[in-house]
Protein: Phospho-2-dehydro-3-deoxyheptonate aldolase
Amino acid sequence: MVIVMGPEATSGDVEAIVALVQAAGVEAFVSKGVRRTIVGLVGDVAQLDGASLRGMTGVRDVMRISAPYKLVSRENHPERSTVHVGGVPIGPGTVTLIAGPCAVETHQQTLDAARMAQAAGARLLRGGAFKPRTSPYAFQGLGEAGLRILADVREETGLPIVTEVVDAQDVELVARYADMLQVGTRNMQNFALLQAVGAAGRPVMLKRGMSATIEEWLMAAEYVAQRGNLDIVLCERGIRTFDQATRNTLDVSAVPVAQRLSHLPVIVDPSHSGGRRDLVLPLTRAAVAVGADGVIIDVHPQPEQALCDGPQALVEDDLGELAQTMTDLPPLLGKSAAAALAL
Structure:
């Protein structure tokens, strides 16, 4: 069961609801969105009287949701949501380009990559300061030094930062620097991390696990939402299949399926799915054509020297075609390329 509070509801109204349901032995989790607050109930809700709850001050509706992912379900929120990251929208009306280096290596490399991203039309800068790698001997990221570089580059370019957090104990640190917290494929079902980012007060990008079903992906998003954060963007980044022709297999069908089941924005990572530079632009076009709300792409000024995922990073020669794609394709679908909002 979920209780939908109206926009006029005060914090006192929400506290009264929470106190009532807790007195009945039911847990209450408050999630705040841009336009409304949701109180999700866990436990024996049969003893609660829906009509009485509807009569309480500030309550807009009381709903029993059949989907196991109650807060992120379209049953709970029929209209699709838009998430704003540092004034940049990600949602159904736009196609947002997020780009930058897979890993932060130096200030100059990150700044050069950010300038490349801007030239292609990016409105958000991606860059990894913490890198969960398959091999313990691979580059693991610069940690807080990398976060400081990202913050400096944000100051120089105006691009809000999207960066990954890999451990629940680092969430507070990363949130001090980042505009959006990314949970990567290897951590999609790290439930302690999901709960921590849900409580961090930052928008969250949740990548689909490499072997996860769409329902498991949405249930992971529910962990974030249940801790009070409805500003979640889902990212399809390719799944593991039997085929070795690409790094992963981009599941383009996941975009419309997830958009039908959930109100959350859905974007695509064509870099990690294809794993090769020559595949990134075709997969980007496929992502936009299928209705994705954005793409997140690796760019690097010198990919042959990259410490992480150089073979999939776009270079200067690719930027014109990427910019053209982001300019020409969205209007054909009734969308526009995302721009930063005036703050």
Observations:
- Residues 24 and 48 are 8 Å apart (CA to CA).
- The chain has a mean pLDDT of 91.
- The first strand starts at residue 2 and ends at 5.
- The chain has two domains: 2-63, 83-337.
